[in-house]
Amino acid sequence: MQKLEVFGAKRLKGQIQVSGSKNASLPILAATLLSDAKVILKNLPKVRDIDTMLALLESLGSNIRINKNEIIIDNSKQKKIFASYNLVKTMRAGILVLGPLLSKFGYAKVSLPGGCAIGTRPIDIHLKALSKLGVKYKINQGYVIARAPKGLIGNNIRFSKISVGATENLIIAASLAKGTTTLTNCAIEPEIKDLVNFLKKAGCKIKWISKRSIKIIGVNEIKEITHTVMFDRIEAGTYLIAAAVTGGNLKIKNIIPRVIKKEIEVLKKLGSKIIIKKNEVKIIGSKKIKSIKIKTAPYPGFPTDLQAQIMVLLCKANKSSTVQENIFENRFMHVAELNRMGAKILIKGNKAIIEGNISFEPAELMATDLRASVSLILAALTTKGKSIINRIYHLDRGYENIEKKLKKVGAKIKRVN
Fold it and tell me: Which of 116, 186, 204, 315 is catalytic?
């Protein structure tokens, strides 16, 4: 099994090109199932979750070709409606094929999803919303077996809580439903806006009618489309924090700065100097890191997917800080590993109290999930000595060529078997 060796005490300098967004690509790939026409997608990241979703689409009958930096998908002969556990077990986004399969065929059998062990992430919000479109379902032996006897029929749906996945699934499903669907209390992450842009280009009738409400008029078919996926804002945020934690000087390129406004705002408050240009951000880390109170929240709040990374930076702050995790109930698993490196972090319920002014020590470490694994790299970059990070298959699910990108800006890091 592969692992990473990280040798610390390096200030990161140079520039990093951010890849396409994993979290935008996955729902867009699921949405291609609606179409019998050719779909061309550009800027998909080369990460394991994308490979898994492409394999899932192929298992459903999609014809997929990779041509240089684009992927061409032809679903004209796609007829299967069974999404197996073997393909869905490693990522929660697998459940996103449920909506388009029901919309297209009126029947689907999809495994309950997997992914990182950061919380229960039930799909009851998806299923309750789909039932209002005329879906009848049962869960049997780990599979959702769902039918829409009269096809999907538009309705007014209010989500009981803000859910990114449920919002995506219902937008996709309603695109081919009969009549009009109105969704309220929607998630409004940039990745959802990218999904909507993709579907509108393909001929779907979708309109935001207020900040968290969307109106969808069902269409009969999806037309041929070429779409470039947005940048990965979590990857961008991770490298911004990497610069801050090492006192580095980095340009983060191929981004839209206004999309990561909250992350930039937090890093400025912590003492980093940030210069914003059209498609890039330059960050210069400060030697004096300030303390802060952070609460994770749905977009446009501070993202839960950067909680582990920012915690590493807060260990270097001049006083104690707090991080309150409001999205997932089990997302502090990186804390035990950071404490093994010398951090002093105390967990009370959904709040982490982080003592500042610490120096990390090198250690052998175990990654527990995607974002936790990258937080261990950030901590290891600040040590004097070699750290070993095991179970990096988590890392490969969401970061494209992370060790190569970090090497180019001065990190001493290598992958070993």
Answer: 116
